[in-house]
Specification:
Elements (H helix, E strand, L loop, with lengths): L7 E5 L13 H13 L3 E5 L15 E3 L5 H11 L3 E3 L4 H13 L2 H4 L3 E2 L4 H8 L1 H9 L8 E4 L2 H11 L3 E5 L9 E3 L2 H12 L5 E5 L5 E9 L5 E9 L12 E3 L6 H18 L3 E9 L6 E7 L4 H10 L3 H9 L26 E7 L20 E7 L2 H11 L18 H6 L5 H10 L4 H8 L3 H18 L3 H8 L2 H8 L2 H12 L4 H8 L7 H15 L5 H10 L4 H8 L1
Parallel strand pairs: 1-2, 1-4, 2-3, 4-5
Antiparallel strand pairs: 6-9, 7-8, 7-9, 10-11, 10-13, 11-12, 12-15, 13-14, 15-16
């Protein structure tokens, strides 16, 4: 049941146009405002970014186009006198601002109540030293580390832990100031950058090469917990989640690993006392069940938006309701309209998130990816298989790619170097290497990417090679009469291959290029030709299955069609 004393809520919005904030938290803030409006609560939004949904007319009752900074927020609190504030829907900027308002006594002075996760729990997760101490209390493993407040203590910590190490700045946005250091020269340079973003820097023992796994966890004030979604980074630890291809649900975990990390996530959120939603990030040893907790985000994160869209579970909407005092069992699932928000979503499909960069627009910028985020957006693709999802995603990122194969040449220079040091084009370097005959073991050694993902990508290459053996089809199609030509199309081996290619994410144009149709017609015409062949042969999506399900669950029709695309 909601708290009836809540009448007017101030929400700290998604912030200015900047990597790590901007539109990335527009989704969570908009959903929270929608949840508050549904309860008849007056809302005041602070967000300087006019290019967002949450600043549109009718979303919030009042909008202040001011920076999400303590001095501006203080003056708005003084003017509007809200009784409550939401901190966890505007990303790291909003969280930092809220903590500062609390520490400066502004919230106490004006009697503003923090909804959802208590402010001390936020501080416990953001202050790296406190965070490690809190998890030690429940015997949960964290990365061996030391919190430092000056350059000299950073140097001593690195000597004690032993190189390589990673530096992480506390309260930092998008991994700003973080990076791996293999020697003292790199350490001092990185430390100087880290301290420019934060007064506290954590020196951690490097676990580069371990898997990175995330869980989105929800808890209400009655201590009920569910894990809404778990995700796995395609890239190993060492590359920021925002820079990595992310797959949901995880594909390479054993059942024991999955449930061990799930149980730990629930244990952590209960101990820290988070109410609403949080994101738990793990490093997992690929050769054992050994793990380390990297961090806990006591807020909606960029991953939360992905998890919401991937599962259909409205994380931000539910988190806002939980902050008002509801229990999970009191809220209806907004997709099914019948079950409660207490049910964990079950995915019978694969979701693939692929980041988008604009690094080519800037001269002198490093293209190497690391623990600090450079991506400016991302796409999400849904498929029945990993191969289908990743090929769809690669077509959508706006780089003129058609999937994993049959693309223009993009990776130039030393191929082994391109594989070893991640850049925005490493996925295409993998395609080139596989075409050249690199073995799975060679690729794993160079990239540390899990062999499961590499075998799946190799499967796409194998289908492509099979299609190329049918290049006589393209020649015959130009010289034979359609009636005579159909018997070649209807050959069982070609029919089966065409069906297999579509199941694993090949576009009609990719198939046309593999068959060599471009030699006889334009790119567009080649793709349309294959599309017509498919229609004539009856190789089409199982739309009737979707229609049957949609008739049974009319409230979930849009969600069903999305999941079957």
């Amino acid at each position: 049941m909601t708290d009836s004393s809540i009448k007017k809520v101030l929400l700290l919005g998604s912030g200015a146009l900047k990597i790590g904030q901007a539109g990335e938290f527009d989704y969570s803030g908009s959903q929270a405002l929608k949840a508050l409006k549904e309860e008849g609560i007056e809302t005041v939004l602070i967000n300087p970014n006019i290019a967002t949904v949450q600043t549109s007319e009718g979303i919030a009752d009042k909008v202040y186009f001011h920076p999400v900074q303590p001095d501006f927020v203080t003056r708005i609190i003084e003017k509007e006198r809200p009784d409550s504030i939401l901190l966890s829907f505007g990303g790291q900027t909003a969280l930092n601002c809220g903590v500062k308002l609390y520490q400066d006594g502004v919230l106490d002075k004006y009697g503003v109540n923090v909804l959802g996760t208590p402010i001390q729990a936020i501080i416990d997760t953001e202050d790296r030293e406190l965070f490690v101490r809190r998890l030690d209390e429940i015997n949960v493993k964290t990365i061996k580390s030391q919190a430092c407040s000056d350059i000299e203590s950073v140097r001593k910590a690195a000597d004690t832990l032993g190189y390589p190490v990673i530096l992480r700045a506390a309260y930092a946005l998008g991994g700003l100031g973080s990076g791996f250091c293999d020697n003292e020269k790199e350490l001092l340079k990185q430390a100087e950058e880290a301290f420019s973003f934060s007064p506290q820097v954590l020196v951690e023992k490097s676990l580069r090469g371990w898997k990175e796994i995330e869980y989105e966890v929800v808890r209400d004030r009655y201590d009920n917990c569910i894990t809404v979604c778990n995700m796995e980074n395609f890239d190993p630890l060492g590359i920021h989640t925002g820079e990595s291809i992310v797959v949901a649900p995880s594909q390479t975990l054993t059942n024991a690993e999955y449930h061990k990390l799930r149980a730990l996530a629930i244990k952590i959120i209960r101990h820290i006392g988070i109410i609403g939603e949080c994101n738990v990030q793990y490093a997992l040893d690929p050769n054992s069940e050994d793990y380390r907790v990297i961090e806990v985000n006591a807020r909606l994160s960029r991953s939360s938006a992905l998890a919401s869209k991937a599962t259909g579970y409205p994380l931000a909407f539910v988190a806002a309701k939980l902050g008002l005092g509801y229990g999970l069992f009191e809220l209806k699932n907004s997709v099914t309209k019948t079950t409660t928000a207490f049910f964990e979503p079950a995915l019978d499909y694969v979701v693939c998130k692929i980041p988008r960069w604009d690094l080519t627009k800037f001269h002198g910028v490093s293209h190497q990816l690391g623990s600090s985020m450079k991506s400016v957006g991302e796409v999400m693709a849904i498929g029945r298989t990993f191969e289908e999802a990743i090929q769809k995603g690669l077509r959508m990122i706006g780089q003129g790619m058609h999937g994993f194969v049959e693309n223009k040449e993009i990776v130039k220079g030393n191929l082994s170097e391109s594989l070893q040091h991640a850049t925005e084009n490493r996925i295409f370097a993998l395609a080139d290497a596989m075409q050249l005959g690199y073995s799975i073991e060679q690729l794993h050694r160079l990239t540390q990417i899990d062999r499961w993902f590499l075998y799946k990508l190799k499967h796409i290459i194998e289908i492509d090679h099979k299609l190329r053996t049918f290049n006589h089809i393209a020649t015959l199609s130009t010289f034979m009469e359609p009636s005579e030509f159909m018997e070649y199309l209807e050959a069982p081996e070609f029919l089966e291959l065409l069906r297999e290619a579509k199941i694993y994410g090949f576009s009609d144009f990719q198939i046309a290029r593999a068959l060599g149709l471009e030699a006889y017609m334009t790119m567009e015409a080649a793709g349309l030709k294959v599309r017509q062949w498919r229609k004539d042969l009856g190789i089409l999506p199982k739309v009737n299955q979707i229609d049957t399900l949609a008739a049974e669950y009319p409230a979930a029709t849009n969600y069903l069609y999305l999941s079957y695309l």
